[in-house]
Amino acid sequence: TYPQYLQAKAMQQVPYKCACFLRITKARGVTFQQLNFLKRMYIAQNNNMLHQQAKLKTESPASPFPEVEHLAPEKVDIHDVRSVSPLLPPPSEKPVINEGLKLTAVTADLETVVGMPSKKEKQWKEIKLNMDELPGVLARLSKIKLTALVVSTASAGFVMAPVPFDLTCFLLASLGTGLSSCAANSINQFFEVPFDSNMNRTKNRPLVRGQISPLFAVSFALSCAVPGLALLTLGVNPLTGALGAINIVLYTCCYTPLKRMSIANTWVGAVVGAIPPIMGWTAATGSLDAGALLLGGILYSWQFPHFNALSWGLREDYSRGGYCMMSVTHPEMCRAVALRHCFALIGLSSVAPILNVTTWTFPIISLPINLYITYLGFRFYRDADRSSSRKLFFCSLWHLPTLLLLLLTCKKSLYEKDNEKERVD
């Protein structure tokens, strides 16, 4: 019978599959994706065999074809389903005229017995979006929390600049930076829909769930990018607008595809996160100074303990989504880089008064929080477990705003800088 043929064919393919599996295992090792794929193949094959072994009910519903009502019920069994078999019938056998009718009737009965979905159930159904839910959907599309962090770091760079505070320029720079961030995040989600659907962390995003169409997402991104860059270029200065455009291109065209190609995506993403405070500084001063580079360096180093600790707890998710992250492919490097940049935060804080950005009070009062995050980074490097990574991640959440607040508190005033210039002269 056909089920027995399937079992015999599967047993014949077992040695070949085992040899292929052992060759791949010897060359590259076994990954979580390969084991998951083998499990799905096994389940699908068993379900296939169960469907082939399904028995018809003794009292089957009336057939919609009157031509087959005269057939005896004992002849309408699973053995008549010969046309669906991949095996071709022998040339000696001649097809029967009523065999197609019997096949249709048997298939209809099988759908009733097994519970196969109807054609209407297989069709794609559009999720109608309520207008009351649109603000929340757009907030998730633009990653509103990440956008708020970007705007806050750009605002800190603006306030730290050694020039008089201009409220109009500050508002234009903040709004333009926020719109640029919304555009970059929307395009990022547009590109990553097939991969986000495989991750528990991102499977509820609007594009993955079908709450909005890809065309709507791209249109929203353009409606944010064009006015955002126009505000930065025309309302602030061309340098800040150029930095905003470079950041959008880096995030969407470099960082997003690199996530599936190389662990270098982490360093590119750190550069993307370091640009907003530089944009705030250039919006206030119109030039790139040592203070702007210092703020960018602090944001650059802070992102490694923050993101590496976060990605450590999401290794299974990233592996399932096909992303090439340090925590998945190079776990020891992931912990070492996080610890290395914790020490870098101490060094950058010590350089701030040398570059005439803050007073000498800043390295002293920022040393406790920098030492604490370095201690948690060492614990993460030594223990390499979820508990230490979680502590480092939550510490990074309050470490950055505290460090920026201390920077603003210890900022050198214009009066002090003028006095130093007069002494030098």
Question: What is the 3D form?
Answer: globular
Number of helices: 19
Structural category = mainly alpha
Beta-strand content bin: under 5%
Q: Please give the largest β-sheet.
A: none
Low-confidence stretches: 50-58, 63-125
Overall pLDDT confidence: 79
Number of strands: 0
Measured on Cα atoms, how large is the radius of gyration? 31 Å
Q: What is the terminal separation in angstroms?
A: 101 Å
Give the fraction of residues assigned to helices. over 70%
- One letter per element, helices H and strands E, the order comes to HHHHHHHHHHHHHHHHHHH
Structure description:
With 425 residues, the chain is mostly helical. The protein contains 19 helices and no strands. α6 crosses α12 (265-285), α7 runs antiparallel to α10 (214-236) and α11 runs antiparallel to α12 (265-285). It is globular. Mean pLDDT is 79; it is low at 50-58 and 63-125.
Topology:
Elements: H1 2-28, H2 32-52, H3 99-114, H4 119-122, H5 134-141, H6 144-160, H7 167-191, H8 193-196, H9 206-209, H10 214-236, H11 238-258, H12 265-285, H13 290-312, H14 315-321, H15 326-329, H16 331-351, H17 361-383, H18 386-409, H19 414-424
